[in-house]
Design goal:
minor pseudopilin epsh fold, 8 helices, 3 strands, mainly alpha, globular, 10% strand, three-stranded antiparallel β-sheet, binds manganese (II) ion
């Protein structure tokens, strides 16, 4: 079965004013749709067809540019759009909040580390909150559409990711990536992130 984009349970304008409608339309409707169809084309008729996206990324031949770029783009954007919500923002609670405090010292310190990873990623890429194999949390960043699951990334299973490609923020924020990163925290759905934490740890 071909890969499909996750369905959004909010409207394109629902994340305003933090993430604008025009960006959402082109980001989900064009960029993410493009990665998805190109991934499907790249694996059609190969031994990757029928495997889960996690399985494909974990065992990826990093020289396979079509699957690396489009498989990463497919997975990364599913996570990104799934972990945003018009009802998001605030702080995590429960076990995830405890784990963040234990690893980073406090939620504010985690936010600072994650934001720095996002702001200092040169060019296009992503910053991540991930669960390592030992169950501990980590912040990391990857270039382009690379992903923490890919060979050599050494970061763990991602549970939250921010897209810092210019297409994710330029229409509204132009060169002000730090303002976009700050705004992202107003729409993070910590309940979804907490569920992903429970599954990954
Ligand atoms: Mn993107």
């Amino acid at each position: 079965m071909a890969f499909e984009q996750i369905k959004l349970d909010y409207d394109f304008d629902a994340l305003e004013p933090h993430i604008d409608e025009a960006t959402m339309k082109v980001h989900y409707g064009k960029h993410h749709a493009g990665y998805t169809s190109k991934l499907n084309n790249a694996i059609k008729g190969t031994d990757l067809e029928g495997k889960s996206i996690e399985e494909i990324l974990k065992n990826l031949d990093m020289d396979n540019a079509a699957v690396r770029n489009n498989g990463g783009g497919y997975y990364n954007h599913n996570l990104y759009f799934e972990t945003m919500s018009p009802n998001g923002g605030g702080n995590p609670s429960g076990d995830l909040a405890k784990a963040i405090d234990e690893t980073f010292g406090s939620f504010d310190k985690f936010k600072e580390e994650f934001s720095n990873a996002a702001k200092t990623r040169f060019g296009s890429g992503w910053a991540w909150l991930a669960v390592q194999e030992n169950g501990k949390l980590a912040v990391c960043s990857t270039p382009n559409q690379d992903n923490p699951l890919m060979p050599g990334a050494n970061c763990g299973t991602p549970i939250l990711g921010i897209d810092v490609w210019e297409h994710a923020y330029y229409l509204k924020y132009q060169n002000r990536r730090p303002d976009y990163v700050e705004a992202f925290f107003s729409v993070v759905d910590w309940d979804v992130v907490a569920k992903k934490y429970e599954e990954a740890k």
